[in-house]
Amino acid sequence: MFRTLGATVLLLKISLTIAYRPVFIYHGILTGADSMGHLVNRIQEVHPGTVVYNFGRFGGWASLINAWHQVQAAHDNLKLVCDLHPDEGINMIGYSQGGLLGRAVLQIYPDHCVKTFISLSSPQAGQFGDDFLHLIFPSLVARTAYELFYSRVGQDTSVGNYWNDPHHPDLYEQYSIFLPYVNNQLPSVNSTQYREALLRLNRMVLIGGPDDGVITPWQSSHFSFFDQKYNVLPLEESVIYTEDWIGLKTLQESGRLHIIERQHVRHYQWHRTNDVIDDVIMPYLD
Q1: Spatial CA neighbour of 25 closest among 50, 62, 61
Q2: Could you tell me where the beta strands, DSSP code E, fall in 55-163?
Q3: Is the dihedral of CA 237, 171, 121, 254 positive or negative?
């Protein structure tokens, strides 16, 4: 009897050792959970037995709803998942807009259970460019889009919430109700929490590349952005890093910030191409 029990315990320990953390996936703009199906399948193929939670809300045009509304709803879903995995925790992947909103979900959830957060080609420092804009608002151009986005009507849209016009920083700070706050550019009663929640992570992985074609500048996926002269300021020279507004410098100095650049990957290939997934995502899913 004891020999059988011992073998059972040993098998249980082995199964726990080789098990992978569950993964929570947040889709991009104008798509939905179905668009992340290839990524889900690849994760479960390479890491058999992985439990994947594919966030299903705000698909299609609903993804344009105000960012804070989406973040709060996603927080409620993530909390249900964390309640199911209080000990081992989970990993989280956010693609495109979902990477930015997913990061904000962590910031409003001070005791979240996420161990590794993967931002997959996401506008973490904002978005400014015609190519992306014409996918959603064909009649708008980047040069004048601020007239819509920096208004009450424009702030009812998720895109308006992270539109970052380098030519109008004053209007950005005056009207934007989302990005300058989650980046702690503007102080709020939650500023300390927004930083400390990200510092709970074991790893933050920022993925992007110069051939993306949608995120503009593509370096926004690494928290870099245009200055007022339209030059892209490297992360290490940006104020969000040097003043450690949300803990990026602390994460990097402790070896927990991983910045990945991969060439020859278009925006819609990051989560649909096996060699890309295997190279830039799978190594961080333990």
Answers
A1: 50
A2: 90-95, 114-120
A3: positive
Amino acid at 187: P
Contact by Cβ (8 Å): 187, 242: no
> Under DSSP, is residue 105 helix (H, G, I), strand (E, B) or coil?
helix
CA nearest neighbour of 58 among 72, 75, 70 = 70
- Kindly calculate the radius of gyration of the chain based on its CA atoms and give it in whole angstroms: 19
With a CB cutoff of 8 Å and minimum separation 6, the contacts of 142 are 128, 129, 130, 133, 165
What sign does the CA torsion over 270, 154, 124, 190 have? negative
What sign results for the dihedral spanned by CA atoms 213, 215, 221, 226?
positive
Question: Which residues have a catalytic role annotated?
Answer: 96, 212, 267
- pTM of the predicted model over 0.85: yes
Q: How far is CA 281 from the centre of its chain?
A: 13
Per DSSP bridges, beta strands 232-233 and 225-226 are antiparallel
Distance CA 23, CA 30 (A): 22
Q: Which residues pair with 258 in a beta bridge?
A: 205
Q: What is the pLDDT along the chain (286 residues), one digit of tens a residue?
A: 434 334 433 334 334 445 899 999 999 999 999 999 999 999 999 999 999 999 999 999 999 999 999 999 999 999 999 999 999 999 999 999 999 999 999 999 999 999 999 999 999 999 998 877 877 888 788 999 999 999 999 999 999 999 999 999 999 999 999 999 999 999 999 999 999 999 999 999 999 999 999 999 999 999 999 998 899 999 999 999 999 999 999 999 999 999 999 999 999 999 999 999 999 999 999 8
Distance CA 156, CA 68 (A): 10
